[in-house]
Amino acid sequence: MKVLLVYPNFLEDRKHAEEISMPPQGIYNVAAVLKANGYDVDLFNWYHFRQPGEQFIDALKAQNPDIIGFSILNANRWGGIDLASVAKDQCPGVTIVFGGVGATYLWEHLLTHFLQIDYVVIGEGDYSFLHLVKHIESGATPIAEIGGIAYRKEGTAIRNPGASFIEDLDSLPCPAEYFSYQHVSLTRGCPGKCTFCGSPEFWDRRVRFRSAKHFVGELETLYRKGVRFFFFSDDTFTIQKKKAIDVCQMIIDKKLPIAWQAISRVDMIDEEILFWMRRAGCIQISYGVESGSEKIRKMLKKNYSTDQIENAFALTVKYGIMSRAYFIYGCQGETDDTVEKTIALMNRIKPLSAIFYILDIFPGTELYNDFKKNCATTDDVWLKRIEDILYFETDPALSQDQVLAFGQKLRASFYESLPGFVDALELADIEELYPFHADFLSRLAMTFDHGDYARIDAISRKEDIAQRLYQKALSFSPDARAYLGLGIRLQRTGQPEASIKLLNDATGYFPDDEQLNICLGVSYMNMARYEDALHYFEPFQQLAHVKKFMAECHQRLNRFF
Questions:
Q1: Which of 250, 178, 264 is nearest to 211 (CA)?
Q2: What are phi and psi of 560, to 5 degrees?
């Protein structure tokens, strides 16, 4: 029995695709359970493709799957439907299964309108999918006895009672034994009541935890496979302080040199937990601020105060962790005044990263239930080829032009104020954290030097900011990234001798650093000191760009290479 698991494409490009472009951990958990039970399983990430094509057909021919499972968010729903149609045409006997949060909340709609879908897995699918595969393979367990499954009976979509939530998460097989990935999670569940989020209903409001040993063991296995950066995908990583600190201390004890980012709440952060998170490699924490208007936050059921927001952002930066703020605009009651309140709050909390979203309405949320009731509509609204429904489309008090103007104003204000936010940085004077401060500052410098911020014209003083951040990083501790950034800047400004001096100092601290040595070699090339350049290139001559540098050096020396 061959099983292919697919993460489908989205209809629209994402502005912030770093996380969403990778399959969620849930699909790896499902795959691991199947693998542990002897099934032949492959994963296929179709995110980067815009439509079914020859590559998908070729993959189907190569895999010849008996079952294809699609991981469905609401926004990639149509991608899954399109791929399922192609799969049915190419492999007429294949069984198509949809699962994930998007499929869970629209199971009846999907089974009613899209006959290419044979089954839907409802909710937590680790074992429900396994039992379904066994049923398809042998029919040993009647379909009516498998919890968490929806299907057609005599042409009508029906669902079985939900499967029990998995209490012992450590009992699940570890996907890292079979796959490499970056999304990991310590918990399942969220006690929050945000009107725009369906996660609590999907995973349960009662939070379940893995042990620190099990979770860090997964990180360790992935590290051995070459993974160095992780997305901790928990709704709130810090929801249980002791558990989070245990994880951090175990990462430190195991000397895992990883970097990671997490999501938290402003009312679940303090100095102790930030200290341990930073030492364990956390480089960014995202907080759902949503709005500067307390009235709007209450409507969204984000029940925390402005003081809590300000405190969380001040502490996060103090410990050398990038603070990212999520803002939602175009909400019920949004006006020029509430947008100004959001800008005022933003200027007080000084986030170093900010993401601005128009309020979306998704199935499985309180907002969606209100929308169906107030607008007398049904799930058939999703028969349109759309990813989402924007709240302003349902509220006559808001117009598209008005809401888009809100977003433009918020973004413009953030970009205008960002240099000042950087100028205001104050880091904790804790000697143990100095190397981490240097790392934080050099990472931040890089975003202004040649990263995301470098490409945004609305941000002023980018070169000056990068220069100062690199220098400030080195005032705390030697840092390879800071040395490299300054060395390259000296090269750009025609100062090869100064670049050589700086980079020689850097290789004294980091003698085996690939980028520092190559950069130093380039500086010697710029000085026409080709023999010296070759000395630094030779340890890395297997790299394509280094081969080109070496060939040029030999040519200049009138040698055959």
A1: 250
A2: -85, 135
CATH code for 2-159? Answer: 3.40.50.280
Per-domain residue ranges for the chain? Answer: 2-159, 174-365+393-425, 495-561
User: How would you write the pLDDT of the chain (561 residues) with one tens digit per residue?
Assistant: 999 999 999 988 877 767 789 999 999 999 999 999 999 999 999 998 877 778 899 999 999 999 999 999 999 999 999 999 999 999 989 999 999 999 999 999 999 999 999 999 999 999 999 999 999 999 878 999 999 999 999 999 999 999 999 999 999 999 999 999 999 999 999 988 999 998 888 888 899 999 999 999 999 999 999 999 999 999 999 999 999 999 999 999 999 999 999 999 999 999 999 999 999 999 999 999 999 999 999 999 998 999 999 999 999 999 999 999 999 999 999 999 999 999 999 999 999 999 999 999 999 999 999 999 999 999 999 999 999 999 999 999 999 999 999 999 999 999 999 999 999 999 999 999 999 999 999 999 999 999 999 999 999 999 999 999 999 999 999 999 999 999 999 999 999 999 999 999 999 999 999 999 999 999 999 999 999 999 999 999 999 999 999 999 999 998 765
Q: Are 120 and 97 a contacting pair, CB within 8 Å?
A: yes
The CATH class given to the 495-561 domain equals mainly alpha
Nearest Cα residue to 266 out of 228, 314, 331, 194: 314
pTM exceeding the 0.90 threshold for the entire prediction: yes
Q: Cβ distance 406 to 361 under 8 Å?
A: no
Whole-number Å distance between alpha carbons of 204 and 187 = 11
Q: Which CATH class is domain 174-365+393-425?
A: alpha beta
Distance between CA atoms of residues 407 and 171, nearest Å: 45
